[in-house]
What we know:
Blueprint: E1 2-10, H1 14-21, E2 38-39, E3 49-53, E4 60-69, E5 74-81, E6 86-98, E7 101-112, H2 117-139
Antiparallel strand pairs: 1-7, 2-3, 3-4, 4-5, 5-6, 6-7
Amino acid sequence: MASIHRSREIAADADALWARMRRFGDLDSWALDLGPMRLSGDETTPGTEREFGSAVGTGTAVERLLELDDEARSMRYLIVRSSHPVTDYVATLRVSPRGDGSLVEWLAEFEAESDDARQVQEGIGAAYDRWMAELARQTERPA
């Protein structure tokens, strides 16, 4: 089993940041290299699926919401279908207070279908880093 853990401190209130991040169908507003999201149900209901493509046309993905916990400010989802060479992919996205701001963490565990799990980890981890950087750019308070 391979894993990824990325985190970023963001100068924004944890509750305000979570209010933005918890919308399962709104990932494309801060993960800018993803295409528009299409939801199969209510974005707060476990079992809802989001389908999206890459903004650069490299394939489509379907992800299913497993859990949304507003008290813990976290969500878990799994990849149903993707162009990434992975199976059994479950990710957790969470935000917690940190000093005057927040700590955003994105964790995932999966089986790599290719021989180079490290390359898969680095590629997905780089995407998490880009997306959290854009989230910070959009939400951080001015210094």
